[in-house]
Amino acid sequence: MHELSIVKDIFDTLTSHYETRVEDIQKIQVTAGLLSNVQPVLIQNAFDAFITENTHYRDMEMEVVVNDIIAYCEHCQKNFPVHFHRFVCGCGQPSSTIVQGNELYISKVIFKHD
């Protein structure tokens, strides 16, 4: 389950960035694109297991926001949504330029006393 290693990386990032304030974090929001191969339920389960083992984080919450896949059409010079992994614009031209959908990042950190 690679979600547990992702959760550990999230906490490593939080710890390195916020140092002594990590325990004051109330909620984090993680944004994952559909192509990132992250399953929201599995990452939530991994997060819950991690905070159960690390009780000083037990009050922390996590929300996972899933981004759709967006590609760019060179012909139309516009972005278009990708459905069913079909990277073809409405004009009929294929695209291999992904604008959104393969990302995975911490998008928001909310502290208890802010």
TrEMBL record:
InterPro entries: HypA/HybF (IPR000688). GO terms for biological process: protein maturation. The keyword Metal-binding applies. Keywords: Metal-binding, Nickel, Zinc. Pfam families: HypA. The keyword Magnesium does not apply. One of its GO terms (molecular function) is zinc ion binding. Coiled coil: none annotated. This is Hydrogenase maturation nickel metallochaperone HypA. It comes from Sphingobacterium puteale.
